Queue: 4 jobs
Job 1
Amino acid sequence: MFKNFSVLIFSVCVFISCNTEQKPLSVTPDDYNNAVDKVTEVIIHDIFSPPVASRIYAYSNIAAYEVLAQNHPEYNSLAGKLNGLGETPKAENPAVNYDVAALIAQMEMAKSLIFSEDRITEVRDSLYKTWENQNADELAASKAYGLQVADHIKSWMDGDNYKQTRTMPKFSVNADNPSRWQPTPPAYMDGIEPHWMKIRPFVLDSASQFKPVPPPAFSMEEGSEFHKQLMEVYNVRNEMTAKGDDSEEAQIAKFWDCNPYVSTHKGHLMFATKKITPGGHWIGIVKIATKKNNADLMETVYAYTKTSIALFDGFISCWDEKYRSNLIRPETLINQYIDDSWAPVLQTPPFPEYSSGHSVVSGAASEVLTEIYGDNFQFDDDTETAYGLPVRSFTSFRAASSEAALSRLYGGIHYRAAIEEGLKQGRQLGQHIVNNLQMKNNATALSHSGN
């Protein structure tokens, strides 16, 4: 009887031990995609401008990448490769799960860069609860390391001059010069981020490194290059009106709108329609590409990080030119001199015209994604389906960037020069990042050179 009782006690102990055994934690590429999607959701909710949104994406992805790079010898740390970034702390605890630590670092950085922190905190706490039930020791070690790397990235980020630009003066409108930008309807907002060129770039040596050629000289004289381009905007819009709202040109314009704050006025009421930013659209394309390529977590974070670096530097380069040339928008001139009832398909965004921001950042992002996945990467872009727009298909990232740039003409918000020179500016910047930011070691880079 005693023997049988001993066997029973042993069996119970084994049962309890098996059921309390901790399981290794795991993070999938979809987990990371969901975390980035949450950042996009908050960016839309909080209505961050396109340049500021690019900063949120960039620093949060860099934090995750730096964690993972410590455990993947085929990928290089960004320390010493991005302006001012020092060596990332190493993990001292062997219990660290680098995948978990990377996601924690991403969420911590994102939370520190937005207004609606609770939206990230809710997701984070849910994950913490799940992980703690699975393996509390591994979570504790991974959390400590993820937060350590996030603190390292925060310290570096604090030196990028962003905080200083928050207290700099608003942009002064020069109403006496007919060529200079003026606020546009319906909200007549102040110029957004007039000091963004003072933000420290990641890879560029200065904001003006890829300064485009000047726009055509301002002239309202019939036959001048500037007047021709102004009339092209006017005529294209009128032709689109004749074709109807379902024309291909209208569909392209709306698909790439990416205006995070569209003001709508009805009587005495004004409300905003919130949308994804241009950078957010390309972050969505990263998700599409990595999922199509069945990318593992490291490749997924790598693609997000390098693309967001290109977007960040692209906005700095573009905004440097915008507030240098300070060129008036087509809508203003057409209303003043040609047709006071004319309105563009898209709402004109609140900053100077030249060069086109979407053209620049689309060109930059497309070069980075082409490096990673090749020049014949066909994909179906469903990024805008949340806004009631159909899927559009592209034969390559460069083809998508060309359409994104052209959308600004169809939208009635840019002259052709801003589109063509902006796309060139962005592609040159993107190629500079491809050539100078080696995030994979030479052996890996050579093995993928056929992509």
Job 2
Amino acid sequence: MTRWLLAGGGTAGHVNPLLAVADRLVEEGDEALVLGTAEGLESRLVPQRGYELLVIPRLPFPRRPNRAALRFPRAVLGSIALTGRYLADRGIDGVIGFGGYAAAPAYLAARRRGIPFAIHEQNARPGMANRLGARLTHVVGVTFPDTPLPHATRVGMPLRREIADLDREALRSEARAFFGLDPARPVLLVTGGSLGALRLNRAAAANAAAVAASGWQVLHLTGGRSTEPDPQVDGYRMLAYCDRMDLALAAAELAVSRAGASTVSELSALGLPAVYVPYAVGNGEQRFNAAGVVAAGGALLEPDAGFTPERFAAVVLPLLKDPARVAAMAAAATGDGVRDGAERMTRLARAGLAGGPRVPSGA
């Protein structure tokens, strides 16, 4: 039995693939522990999944010269030392990092102790921790093919089992009924993530009557901060939260969505075409996340700033009236997607642990 330490967290984008890989390792007879912080989302999700969370301090990289910047080097050394003690005390054989605050100390502590480690990068534009780690190991798995990291092998996004094994067609009628929708009519899924997206919410709600007139229904996941009123149109289901995203994805035939790495990966793996409206902050990674499936013909890309109700009508409504085009986009999205990213990443990590050759991306 191999004992792994999986490091990462902060956001769902780091935690969910970490847990997907942990689940596969345990299914194969190994043991998995998780390194994270007390403030990140991992502090809740990791214990819920039944894994032990080993905690280190959350250390944001200082952006300006101040007292925090002066204390930062010593604090980092303390986190590396604490992580090293975890590695020794728990008899860790290998480390897999997923980015976030806990990843860099894990990479540096593993290297200091001669423990093999692997990296998974979720976004098309890598974060700081994984840019550092990729210089220190040859075992680097990435979600998207053009991610600029050395030694990268495309493995896709590690998906949780309920998504990776989802049979959308078999569950479609049940899924639509679950949300109170007509099983016989197609569904447009609109989602901006857990916090929602103001422009997506406004644009979709403003076109509720037009979507209904086209014969489609809408499952609109607004996010917890939305104040958008329900348009009260027949076949328009508005929810703040959805605990059954597997059923939401099974119900839909087209999506209007943000372009987070997990979202793009899940929709592409399941062959669900989309109109992506990337979140226009940070280093622009959402736009790059969607670039591959857009180039393949499985999705369209719309800038957030211009996604008005009028633009929604101009782009989305013609798709609803063209089932042949939606079907062609679904086939193209399927061709770009990866369902077995968790299995590919575990094979890559095991090959690195054994000192063997890297696993081919198509294996």
Job 3
Amino acid sequence: MSRVCELTGKKAMVGNNVSHALNRTKRKFDVNLVKKRFYIPEEDKWLTLKVATSALKNINKLGISAVIKEAREKGFLKK
């Protein structure tokens, strides 16, 4: 499974390591993902998702139901 947030679609970015002598080598910036279980009261079930920590802030702010609804509209969540 790739390291992609299931709610926001965030994935790794590519950039450069830059040394003191300004030599550049390729590197990857991974997404800060956590595996988390959420309870959805409307459906009366638990859902396990791999989400970015920035998505957790959105869940705390808007609620899990609103974030899941938005993710389904954007096509990130198939369930």
Job 4
Amino acid sequence: MNKKLGLTALGASLALTLAACGGEGAGSNTNTADADPSDLSIGVSMPTETSERWIADGENVESQLEEAGYTVDLQFAGDDIPTQAQQIDQMIVEGADALIVAAIDGTALSSQLQAAADQGIPVISYDRLIRETENVDFYVSFDNFRVGEAQGTALLTGLGVTDEEGNPTGVTGPFNIELFAGSLDDNNAGFFFDGAMSVIQPYIDNGTLVVKSGQTSIEQAATLRWSQETAQRRMEDLLTSSYNDGSVVNGVLSPYDGISRGIITALQNAGYGPTQDAQPRPMPAITGQDAEIASVKLIADGVQDSTIFKDTRLLAEQAVAAATAYLEEEEPEANDTETYDNGVKVVPAYLLPVETVYQDDIESVLIESEYYTAEEVAAGQSD
């Protein structure tokens, strides 16, 4: 995955992102401003290695921190909350000077974060907002409501109801759709779902879209731990309970590529596809997120309709910039200081933009940016 490390712009990014205005976060008592980076250690806690997205995130953050001169302790928690808590405890005991944490459960690390605050260790919440604590200093992520809006627009585009800019085409359906959401213990899941529903709800209200199962709340649509297998089982149950009358699914709102692949497996097993052009049961228009290579191949092959690309190389740069700012006893630049209320305080954030990838965008968005090679897309595997 060396091609995904994106180190060339790191120096410029750090220079632009640091704003020297006197640190007042948890890191203000660490006395690290005059230290050589090689004498400082940063703990990086990632939720799982079962998703290629999180592997790439971990490697990107680790490589860019090491390029900046820091010692890095990167740990993956295997989607197990006690494991992540223990790993962070160990990072603190071993003297981490800063923590970058992508939480499995955004409410489950209060004692670890209190220990970090007690020792003046700044905590940067990575992509998933850490909730219900004052002991989180900064948040780096993408514009998560916008991710949901883009997914909703992609679903409408896949059905032919709107164009890619969201302009109505005059197609009125009705189209049968089903809704999937992410894991409720991940704060992002709500932003994704709310953003998508803000786009598609008017078309449900006017009858263009029909959620045949009637399962329209996030609680009904949620997928614990973003699990592909859980999504497959739920799609199988929906087909059995709501489509046993000969009707077909025309579209599925999916918030993540792994969930999308589970949905696709269930549909293929029920006789859909193999592609969106197949007859008599074409594969529905299915959204996604993270541009995982297996799903990019599915998009290239006409199976999955779209995904949301979030360039984790850029997210890693912002995490490194925030950590560096705190360790230099400065404040990182935030471009959102209002949106991300974690239940105790509004956490300052730096949000990055996203891109929707359809079949025709793979070359320009993913290959030309060197995120993947053409050979990787063709194989459905990254080196």
